[in-house]
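User: What would this chain look like folded?
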Amino acid sequence: MKVAMVASHYPHAAHLDEFVSRVHQVAEAFRNTPGCLSAECWVSAAGDAVISTVQWESEEARNASLATVGASALDLAHDAREARPREIQHLVAR
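Assistant: Here's the prediction, encoded as structure tokens.
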């Protein structure tokens, strides 16, 4: 069963371009893991949120992918560059 994750990030305006670059790097890392079907970066029309989407072929692929990317040297930390906490939704295809 396909699963997905949608993460909404809220960088301060001064960090938007840097944050978009970070999300593109993380999306590329996800795309390089087995079972990842897609990973993309979106910016809200208002420019106040960066939305990342990732889709996997199974929960097992998602769990392995998250572990691999989480253990990487990528900049994944939530910090003062973000105006508020991230919102992460885990989805299941029906």
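The domain at 3-92 is CATH 3.30.70.100 (Alpha-Beta Plaits). If you want, I can go into more detail on any region.
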